[in-house]
Amino acid sequence: MKQYAQRKDWLTIIQLPSYAPELNPVELLWAHAKEKIANRAFRSIHELHQDVKNALRYIQRHPELLIGFLAGPASNSAHPQQARSQRSVGSAFRCPTASP
What we know:
Blueprint: H1 2-7, H2 25-37, H3 45-61, H4 63-71, H5 80-86
Helix pairs in contact: 2-3, 2-4
């Protein structure tokens, strides 16, 4: 692959880290959904299933969240726990062009 890329002046290869959830908007979506159901004791699989569906439905109904996930994390904090505690639906994932 490297030899092929060297022969093509129009092709640029960017080496990404092996694991970089901050570069994957789906990871932000799942993190948000998991926060909605965290620290709960579910009495049944059905109850868990319903809450997961509700969390995903919430994201689906708020397109500004999806736009925010695509834009990336709002905080460039070096400490992930600190960044997580600073996030909120109203600030970190709000699209700058979306109405409040």
